Amino acid sequence: AGDEVIVTAYSWSSSATCILHANAIPVFVDIDFATINMDVDKIEAAITARTKAIIVVHLHGLAVNMAKVMKIARRHGLKVIEDACQAHGAEFKGRKVGQYGDCATFSFNQNKCLCSGEGGMFVTDNEDILNKARMIWSFGETRTPTEKRDYHAYALGWMYRNNDLTAAFGRAQLTRLTEYLAIQRENAALLIQELKGVKGLILPVEPAGHRANHYNFTSRIDVNKLGWSGHPARLRDAMMKAMNAEGVPAGVWQHFILPVMTVFQAKNAFGKGSPWCLGKKVDYNPKRFPAAQKHTDSHFGMTTPLRAPNGPETVKAVAEGIRKVFEGIGELDVEKVLSAK
Fold it and tell me: Which residue, 42, 43, 226, 336, is the most exposed by fewest CB within 10 angstroms?
């Protein structure tokens, strides 16, 4: 209780609320705008005497630079937890994510690359961590489903059990995961090729040594190149509505950076200021995370067009719709589009 855990300032809320579940304190680090992942060069500045772990999020299926993360973690004696919920099959330097840190998590919910409808998976090659995980997965009992239960709670636990039906479906989907990921990469490569050179459009990147799974094809709008001087989110929202009208299934994945969310701003997760009252003052001023905010205000993304059974025909139709909106930006009445029902 009161320990600090470093995490990215931009992700799904549970990447950081899981820290609160352990009565620990999230410490946010800004993102690298190009990759949308945590800026690994800013991790060390966030480490204090109370820091115990780093949660790295392989966002939208692109791995974090794990070589740098692990070097920092080992130097300071920190655990590394990989949030690979969107990153099934993604690689860094030829090695799949989930194998670098002390443990990792994957999600299997309805829109993930490996889908069982709901649920997820925890992985580790550390026997001690594995045994601790087993203690909390079923009400603090320590017996597995194949053993006779004594219904004795040996520790504080939750109900994290999966069910047989979704597990069976997930195992079946696993046999096709390689095929699905190959389709996503092919579709993403074609979409990037079709959209290269579009003025004001910032396409996803794949740095050297990385192999993305393209869970979500996330692009950004360079409002300056399009001559827009207002709030970037207003132009983004208007252009997205225009893209939707052209049949492009684009959407905003996150409207808020994590530090501005009420659950963190209130600093009162368990009442009486806990867990923040147990540690030193932590600054969640959103101005400390400019890259995350810039991304939040300018991004749009989509998953469906890249997924099986979609192929080149769908990808080219989507690209045509995006190009039409960007190339016709001079005809877009932002205020009229946003006020329309």
Answer: 336
